[in-house]
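Bench notes, afternoon.
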Amino acid sequence: MRFEETVRLHYDALNETEKDMITTLLDHLDDYCSLSITDLGKMLQSSRSSVLRMAQKLGYRGYSEMKYQMQHDVETREIIPSDLISLFENDVHRTFELAAQTNFHPLIEHIDRCEKLILYATGFVQNNYTKQLASELFLYGKPNNLINGESNFDIISRSLGPNDLVIVTSLSGETPGIIPTLNMLNIRNVPICSVTRLSQNTLVSHSQYHLFYEASQLPIDNGKGNSLNALGIILTILSRKYLEYVLYDEV
């Protein structure tokens, strides 16, 4: 996992000072990645001990490990794809990498044993890919319900319990309209699986299971368009993992 991805995953664990430090570090990564811990502390207007604590909060055993990761990322930085086909290829490759780092077994077992399986998508494109997941799970013998609309999602959540499972597909994981429903599900101890692009977000923080995919920006809509093709890939991987479990009792 690259340094920026590690930061995104652990960002909420940092205090405000550490968040300022990491922002400055990412902005000057090429210049700062080879500094000693003492020199980096000076450049970040902090101290040696503060840099060490930040590194440990990011999941590193110490500064040396974080420094190695930063240097490696700078030295092996990927060239930004010059065409949209290469961009798509990169999304696919990164999503398979993320899947390879994921332990699917607890989630697959939960899907198999849950009494009610609820699927919910936060957007139109997400819903299209989630429909495919719903169809494949039906084909493999697992009944499920794809819920449309925030109001319907809220209503169905009130009838769920610990023996059920909710899978929510999203891009950013930041959909204000479903936060009350997520809170309700947590209160009722209903397990949630989030499916989002790689980031630490509200949906992930409410979920017990997490699947991630890569979603690159496209040169449309003033730079705000994201490619969600890889969402279909991670959902297909999930459905095939379930089929492997059904057929061979393995994931």
